[in-house]
Amino acid sequence: MVGGPPDILLVLMLKLILLVSPVYVTLFWYLTLNTNKAKGSEPKFFLGKFMGIACLLFFSHLLYFLPLPGWYHYADPFYHFFSLLVYPMYYIYIRLLTVDRVFVWKKHALFLLPAFVLFLFYLVGVLLMTKSEHLDYLYRQLLSGEKVSGVFRYQKTVYLACRFVFVVQGLLYMWLSITLVGANKNNVQNYYANTSEDNLKKIYWLNITLFVTIIFGMTFSILGKERFIANENSLILPSAVFSVMLFVIGWLGNIQRAVLIDGGDLHRGSVKAGLEEEPEPNHLADIRNRLVQIFEEGKIYLNKDLTIWEVSRVLGTNRTYVSSVINNDFKQNFSSFVNSYRAKHVQMLLANNPDISKQDLVEMSGFGSMASMKRALHHEQNASQALDS
Of 167, 156, 157, 253, which is closest to residue 203 (Cα–Cα)? Predict the structure, then answer.
């Protein structure tokens, strides 16, 4: 009996730590991501808003599990609202990193619409119940699984609809995010010479953390939070997973830069290609010859900010034709085509001056970074061997 109260206190402290952990993590990143006022920080700002919504979601979790039923009565509709916002908001964040420059309500509201609609339906049910009826429904009827009727049946139907939509959203936005990042990588390499590979990798890691978070989120949604209320130990795994994943998402988001396709070309390129007339073979051959000329004689590849649009402007043709020549005649994307010339330029510089520094090689050959130069040199064996010697 002597050890009773301390044991109870220890359990309560453990429970509080588990519940507060994801709240603290998301609050930290909400404040951090919203303090950067630099231009081009739109994705970070939006990820900060995502963290704010996640913070409110986990705070409502805390009210439910402590439990503080008098407070959770007011938070319950918003708990379901916030839970239905997190996946579409994360997908919008991925879009801001890849194809959309800014958040626009008219454009992005469709992703958020199911959350608003179900929130209104759920709120109607709460308003039709008294506070005591609502709490009885939350903490007894849902836990017991007893058959309900009237407004309680309506509310349980909306509740189950929220859980179903949450799972569908998880699967849908996971697939959309993976597809979008894959398409973005291919298009970036076709349009830009320096492709910011490090940023692309960070977006892949963001998608991996999203995948893990969605899998656990869907699992816990299917089980229902009611399954965890009787056993504090059952909160350890979800709390640890969400805290770690959200911290990783915040950390990656804080150091991540957008990898955008200029002018939304990711979605328009295929449409343009289909509308343009098929070029004559002689026309493509002429483009090929002039392309080789501006690279071999004009050394246009020394421009570290070179894009396929700039090459098209110099050649007096359009991006689709240039891309077609590089893809079909040289069997390369734009990035690898340009960097193959840069790698040969590195080889020439090394032959003339073996003591030249690696940083000078980067700057004098048009590479955007040491990492991009090393990657290109892997495709030019002689230059790579010369660099290592």
Answer: 253
Q: Please identify, among 210, 244, 264, the residue that sits at the C-terminal boundary of a domain.
A: 264
Over 50: is that where the pLDDT of 48 sits?
A: yes
Nearest to 113 by CA among 92, 93, 128, 94: 92
| pLDDT value at residue 186 | 62
Tally of residues, the chain:
389
Geometric angle at alpha carbon 36, from 35 and 41, rounded to 5°: 135
Containing domain of residue 24, as a range?
Answer: 12-264
**219 and 97 belong to one structural domain:** yes
Count of other CB atoms within 10 angstroms of residue 78? 17
For residue 269, is it within any domain? no
Q: Which of 358, 384, 359, 372 is nearest to 197 (CA)?
A: 372
The model scores a pTM over 0.90 = no
Confidence label for 119 from pLDDT (cuts 50, 70 and 90)? very high
Same domain, 116 and 170: yes
pLDDT in tens, 302-329: 888 787 888 888 888 887 888 888 888 8
Q: What is the mean pLDDT of residues 281-297?
A: 86
**Backbone phi and psi for residue 192, each to the nearest 5 degrees, phi listed first:** -120, 145
Burial group, residue 200, by CB count within 10 angstroms (0-12, 13-18, 19+): middle
Kindly state whether residue 3 falls inside one of the protein's structural domains: no
Q: How far apart are CA 25 and CA 37, in angstroms?
A: 21
Average pLDDT, the chain: 81
Alpha helices in 139-235 (DSSP H): 142-144, 151-191, 197-223
In a domain, 7, yes or no: no
The CATH number given to whatever domain includes residue 98 is 1.20.1070.10
For the chain, give the percent of residues with pLDDT over 70.
78
Q: Which of 93, 158, 175 is nearest to 119 (CA)?
A: 158
pLDDT of 180 reads 82
> Is the domain of 280 the same as that of 373?
yes
Alpha-carbon gap, residue 274 to 279, rounded angstroms? 12
What is the token pair recorded at 237?
């795994």
What pLDDT score was predicted for residue 97?
80
Domain annotation covers residue 250: yes
